[in-house]
Specification:
mainly alpha
């Protein structure tokens, strides 16, 4: 660790000792630990802040995000569910939970939270894109295509939406359209998996 980072941490630690109940100081220290990759200290500091102010949305949201970053998916889901206990219409927390459930392969639970998020914020493009992948998993291909295209209409440079559109079109037996969407995904920094591109190429050769 550089002397500069250590000096910053020591200053923030001193501030917290002087103001042990200051949520602002605690939050700053937790974020500094996170940036310094002292993840255990960051988690402990976030948790200390939440003991003082269990309703702090910033502390709870950042702790959940840190857990997801560290691959502690269930802990991240738990923090986001606690957010919903206090803020039941927090669409971002619903989106985070839905995305996490996709990663865990718990598709029905993912669908529930993503649809809840969309009811509150119908134009959340990340929710629309993730909902597309959920619909593909459930075989609802027309729905998958529709929500992916809606995401693209709202955010024309959103590579993930093009990727998910390509997948939906491919399984809907539209390889040409899938290839076009895959190229757009690549253009916008979300290149599809090479194996998927090979599947598209094979399907095009069969046409």
């Amino acid at each position: 660790m550089s002397n500069n980072i250590q000096s910053i941490l020591e200053g923030l630690e001193a501030e917290c000792r002087q103001n042990p109940y200051s949520i602002v100081a605690i939050h700053r220290l937790a974020l500094a630990y996170w940036r310094a990759q002292q993840f255990d200290n960051a988690i402990q500091t976030f948790e200390k802040g939440l003991e003082i102010d269990p309703l702090s949305l910033e502390l709870r949201t950042n702790l959940g995000t840190l857990y997801f970053q560290l691959g502690k998916i269930e802990e991240g889901i738990s923090q986001n569910k606690k957010t919903l206990e206090t803020y039941p219409k927090h669409a971002e927390a619903m989106s985070n939970i839905g995305s996490a459930y996709i990663g865990l392969g718990r598709i029905d639970e993912a669908l529930e939270y993503l649809q809840r998020a969309l009811e509150i914020k119908p134009e959340m493009v990340t929710v629309l894109a993730n909902l597309s992948s959920v619909f593909v998993e459930k075989g609802m291909l027309q729905d998958a295509i529709e929500v992916a295209r809606k995401a693209i209409a709202l955010a024309p440079t959103f590579g993930l939406a093009y990727n998910n559109l390509a997948v939906a079109l491919f399984y809907n037996k539209q390889p040409k359209e899938a290839a076009d969407a895959a190229e757009m995904a690549k253009k916008y920094s979300y290149p599809p998996h090479p194996e998927f591109m090979a599947q598209i190429e094979a399907a095009l050769n069969e046409v």
